[in-house]
Amino acid sequence: MTSKIEESGERPTPVLECRGLAAGYGAVTVVRDLDVRLSAGQVLAVLGPNGAGKTTVMTTLAGLLPRIEGEVVVNGTPLPSARPGAANKAGLVLVADDRALFTSLSVRENLQIAQKSGGPSLEATMEMFPALKKRLKVSAGSISGGEQQMLAVARALVQQPKVLLIDEMSMGLAPVIVEELLPVVRRIADETGAVVVLVEQHVHLALEVADEALVLVHGDVRLQGSAAELAVHPERLEAAYLGEAAAV
C-alpha cells in the first residue's frame, strides 16, 4: 500500500491498532472483525452507506461504548473497554457528528475549556482555521455551520490528540464548505503527526486527503486498502457499497 507519509525500510511503529474489534449495543453486534494499523501522520477514511456501523466504530474507539471483542491499542498500550477517560488520557479525542459545542459560550471559551496544559496555544490552533480568528468573541451558537465544525475540530486540537476521531465532518454543510474543510484534515496529520480517523460521506474528497480507506457495509469490512489505489478504481468502491467485494 502506498502512503502520503515517508516510508522507511522498516514498518513504522503503529500509533493506533484495532485487533479483531467487534462492537455494538448490548447483545447486538453491529461491527465485526475490524483490524486497523495506523502510524503517526496517517489518515484513515472510514466509508460506507448509512447504517453500516461507522459511528459505532468511532464511539467504541473513544471508549463511549463497550467492546464486544478485540483490542484497541495506542502506542503499544491496550486500552480498557468503555473507559472514555482512559481513552482520552491515552490521546484519543472524538469530534462527534453533532459537534457537541457549548452554544451559549463564545468561541474562545469553548476552546479554553478544552485546552490541555502543554498543548498548542489558541493562536497556533487558529492558524489552521483563520476564519475563526474574527469570531472568538461570538457565541458558538451564532456562528455558521461551517464555522461550528471548524470550532469542533479546533477544540479537539487544543487537547493535543495522538488519535483524532472525526465523525461526519461534512454533515449538514454545503459541498463548497466541505471542499475547504477536508484538506485541513491532511494538514493536521502532516503538521501534528496525529493519526486521523475520518468518517465521511463525500467519498472522493475523503480519498484525496486519506492514506488508507475502508468500506463498511452492514458491519463488515468489504474493502480495505490504499486510498490512492481506491480513488483510481471507483468500480471497486461501487461493488463494495453494493456488497459485492471482499476485503483486500
UniProtKB/TrEMBL annotation:
It comes from the Bacteria. Keywords: Amino-acid transport, ATP-binding, Nucleotide-binding, Transport. InterPro entries: AAA+_ATPase (IPR003593), ABC_transporter-like_ATP-bd (IPR003439), ABC_transporter-like_CS (IPR017871), BCAA_Transport_ATP-bd_LivF (IPR052156), P-loop_NTPase (IPR027417). Residues 16-243 form the ABC transporter domain. GO terms for biological process: L-amino acid transport. This is Branched-chain amino acid transport system ATP-binding protein. Belongs to the ABC transporter superfamily. CDD domains: ABC_TM1139_LivF_branched. Pfam families: ABC_tran (PF00005). It comes from Nocardioides panzhihuensis. One of its GO terms (molecular function) is branched-chain amino acid transmembrane transporter activity.
